[in-house]
Amino acid sequence: MSKWAELQKSKGDKIVEGIAASSGMAVGQVRNVHEHVPELMAEIQPGEVVVGYRFKAEHCNYVKIAAALVTDSGGVFSAAAFMARTYGLPAVTGTTKGTSILKNGQKVVVDGAEGAVYTYKDKATGKHK
User: Does any domain span residue 128?
Assistant: First the structure.
């Protein structure tokens, strides 16, 4: 089974949707940096799904280690979308409410081609995490 097919099977319920800003799919734990204070940005760990109101060029060194990006604002021409495409990360922008819905540590599937974020469904148990 291809990695894409495996990720498709990991999709649970749709949590938020927005603009498909950078294609690809990733699974990771949420790191919500709703405020871009240096302390929150410095906590980003490799492989996390980084969620913020928006990202600017100066956040590049923080977000390049992410599995995916999700923003409340922006679109396909936003800084977040540009960074995601540059680093090969899936991105969903313009969700309007991602920072208020997605919680730190929550495991999610980001589908950048669809422009949506889903709960993660454990393939072995079928349970949502």
Answer: no
